[in-house]
Amino acid sequence: MAWVLFLILVAVVLGLIGAVAEGLAYLLAIGIVVFITALVLAVALLRRGGRRPVR
Fold first, then answer.
1. SS3 assignment, position 30
2. How far is CA 53 from the centre of its chain?
3. pLDDT at site 36
4. Residue 21: which residues within 8 A CB-CB, separation 6 or more?
């Protein structure tokens, strides 16, 4: 789950840089793609049920 939070943080930073800096709109697009990837990963981890029990 730490990876999901890290990916969301990276997406926000890229999105802010892409939105503020002139000529770097591609960073905004990359940020959006990373954010969507993080959301899909989070849903997949939550549906799996978290950690498996230790045998």
1. helix
2. 27
3. 92
4. 27
Q: How many helices (H) and strands (E) does the chain have?
A: 2, 0
Output DSSP code: residue 22.
T
Cα separation, 37 vs 18, in Å, equals: 18
Give the three-state DSSP class for 55.
coil
Confidence of residue 40 (pLDDT cuts 50, 70, 90): very high
Say if CB 18 and CB 26 are below 8 A apart: yes
At position 17, the amino acid (one-letter code) is I
Average pLDDT of the chain is: 85
Closest CA to 7 of 38, 32, 43: 38
